[in-house]
């Protein structure tokens, strides 16, 4: 297993976890929220949160020599389903067909007052250990 570091411009993890782990051709990225360097959520609502999150996910994928096309599973956690359309737009801008499998979960709250959290599973292939 190989851990990945935090994306540039984000604070370090606030708990005992790795931002990402590469294991046996699979990449598991921990849930990302739109934290700025000062530890606050990016202003502008769920659409802006999604833009920052997907930018950071792209950077983390790059650390593992991967691209969004390697993502096979995406989980979205939303505190307000009214923001679903903006998140869908961010997903459409980030991914291209064939799109990854996806789960969307409505939750009561997220850390630091975030309205969106996203985690990713990517397959990099057998030669990526």
From TrEMBL:
It comes from Leptospirillum ferrodiazotrophum. GO terms for molecular function: deaminase activity. InterPro entries: RidA (IPR006056), RutC-like_sf (IPR035959), YjgF/YER057c/UK114 (IPR006175). PANTHER family: 2-IMINOBUTANOATE/2-IMINOPROPANOATE DEAMINASE RIDA, PROTEIN HMF1-RELATED. Gene3D superfamilies: RutC-like. This is Putative endoribonuclease L-PSP. Coiled coil: none annotated. It comes from the Bacteria. Pfam families: Ribonuc_L-PSP. Belongs to the RutC family. GO terms for cellular component: cytosol.
């Amino acid at each position: 297993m190989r851990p990945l570091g935090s994306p540039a411009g984000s604070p370090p993890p606030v708990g005992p976890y790795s931002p990402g782990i590469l294991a046996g051709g699979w990449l598991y990225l921990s849930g990302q929220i739109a934290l700025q360097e000062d530890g606050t959520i990016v202003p502008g609502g769920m659409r802006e949160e999604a833009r920052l999150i997907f930018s950071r996910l792209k950077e983390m994928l790059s650390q593992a020599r991967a691209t969004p096309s390697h993502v096979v599973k995406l989980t979205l956690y939303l505190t307000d389903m009214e923001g679903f359309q903006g998140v869908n737009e961010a997903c459409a801008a980030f991914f291209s067909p064939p799109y990854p499998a996806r789960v969307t979960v409505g939750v009561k709250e997220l850390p630091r007052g975030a309205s969106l959290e996203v985690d990713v599973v990517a397959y990099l292939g057998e030669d990526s250990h």
